[in-house]
Amino acid sequence: MNAIETHELSKAFHGMYAVEHLNLHVPEGSIYGFIGENGSGKSTTEKLICGLLVPSAGTIRLYGQPHTNPAIRSQIGVLIENPGCFPNSTVYQNLMMQALNLDLPNPSQEVGRVLKLVSMVGAAGRKFKECSLGMKQRLGVAQSLLGRPRMLILDEPINGLDADGMRIVRETLIGLNQEQGVTILVSSHILGELAKIATHYGILRGGTLIREMPASAMVEECRSFVAVNTSDNPRAHAILATSYTQVEAKDGILRVYDETDSALVSAFLHQNGIGVTEISYQSIGLEEYYLQTMSRQTKEASHA
Amino acid sequence: MPSPAAIKPRIKSMLKLDFYRLFHTPVLYIMLAISAIIPAMLLTMTGVETQAGPGVSTPQPATPGVEYTNTWQLIESVGGTAANPLDFGGYANINMVFIFAGLLMAIFVAHDYSSGFVKNIFTTHSIKADYVISKTAVGVFSGAGMIASYTLGAVVAGIITAKSFEVGVGGLLLCLISKILLMGVFCALFLSVAVFFRSKLWVTIVATFLVGMMLYPAASVATLNSSLATALIALLAGAIGAALLGAVSTVILNKRDLA
What is the pTM for the complete model shown? Predict the structure, then answer.
């Protein structure tokens, strides 16, 4: 069953569509990495799912139920953009208010639990306005974890966090997903960090979902290549192109996508009188895959 | 349509949240303190008693240029004439706390939006009607507290300045109860204004003052010679007004995006 499913979801602001005909499928128990450039509609989609925005068209179902169902909504933890906290209230008071709002049976105990999870026990008495950016972000994550939600919707949860803060959030999310089966929809611009946790991906552009796939499929699509540097790259490029169909010059090196054996490429270049200075077998990461997908989309759009 | 069994815990949790916030933020205490200080200032600054004398059984309206002779003139006068627009005391009498309750609600709602806490509220099980009911209840409770605080301030200042305390006790009690009941319609109206302007605190405050001043004469209905009928009218007006204006607030919240 899908934890989140949208059907032809659209949202317009003053006649301009921020999200258009979105058909999103977030499987139950997944960590769904939501990727897209600024203004692509990620936050709008998340706000629509959370019920903060009213859709212009389309439907949203959470665990097969309409997203407006209060019983379903009480099982969702949310961090959208900034944590919603009162600046003059303490960290503890802000968490306590949300715990009361959720009608948790033992609110103070639950607040203590989430403070421990995000390593903020020592800052419980600090006013929110006196917290650092990283602490505020961790508090937002703690707020979303109150009441052991079945699903988390997190918009840029690691923004402003240092390396240790990122590790704490990452380990917390992986733990929740693997130990308690919590479904997580998470958007982030820090793709390297997202790649460490996501089991599924959705790529959004201009309010439209352009790709949706499991992480395993993306790994397959993230093409591997032989990277080669020579004494004369332009000539090497021309020579390689006579034997291989997918050769590309990038960042000062040549990439041969339709070959996996670097020794064969090296031997081929030597036969043609070109000295190889550097050669290795590499594969592209999530960030590069994303950029390539975006670039392909731009080309396709301009051709159309 | 949600069942009453499902609605009850939702409203209960929203009330718990709002009352926790009310008692853990300084706004309520500041408003209570101001409500107590104003009658004390009015009584002490209007000079020495010159007109009160033995045999005064019913407090008369405070009129321009004439100082208070009876403590209860601050609460209200016979027939509600203390609301005479030319009389400073008429504006600073107990009906002033209706505006204070409006200010408290304006601050409460605007901070919900400006802090982003409203996202926490509406992404959980709460629905817009819960928010309206809970906020109105907080407003009525705070307003009742301010009425009590104002009365207490007037009594203490009355003792210090040796003002007369002669009044019909039944009429006084029914007057205070009626004012508390009328808080329902006032707070519901202030809430509609607040949810309309959302995080724009200063606009909300100005609008609250304007609508508060328009509705101000209604508060003067409850006078020191109030009867059970007055309290009943106040109860009906408070309940019906709160229900109608609460529905307006709910529609405003439902129609608009929250973030």
Answer: 0.79
